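Hi R.,

Here's the input for the zinc ion complex you asked about:
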Amino acid sequence: MSDSKNPDVIDQAVHFLREYYHGRDLEIRSAHAHAAVSHFLGYNSKKALQSDPDFEPFDVDLINYREVGTEKLAEHIPRMKETPLQRLSMRDLAAVIYAGLAPACECCEQKSLSITPLGYEEREPDGWVCQTCADEDESAYAYCKFCSDDYVYRSSEINHRGECAEHDGESVYDDEELEDMASLAEYFQNH
Ligand SMILES: [Zn+2]
Ligand SMILES: [Zn+2]
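And here is the predicted structure with zinc ion in place:
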């Protein structure tokens, strides 16, 4: 145990993965789940992950900036002793591990496959919300009309024109352009 008040993110992801598949009648051994989470994070083994001094397992936002991928999963899982992991699509497995590594939704407090960090690619997002909660609570969450719908913001971060801080004024600029065109048309009509 660490003296940190945050839980160990790896342990949480292992727990989530095993529970998720248990609910689908697939029993994943703890060692295999630990290995899979380590592989998703780019390590050859759980041991390699644990002995990396740069890896901060208590950082709740680590999934937001760590490089992840299915390469090592695809390399190592076939070599494991027989496990249901070998019958899963790597993409689905990766989505489950991602959800397990990410914090729980700040609204429903559940880990979710549709979990999204708030804001635009912040290293330390202000919070995390699942898609269902983001869509249900329109007074709390909003989308920027210029960012793609993949980015969820707190409503307070979106101005009355529906823009995020990055895109602040973007639609005003468009309005000015329209005005310019309108006054140009007027000019030609009057001259
Ligand atoms: Zn939620
Ligand atoms: Zn935007």
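One thing worth noting: The radius of gyration is 23 Å.

Cheers,
M.
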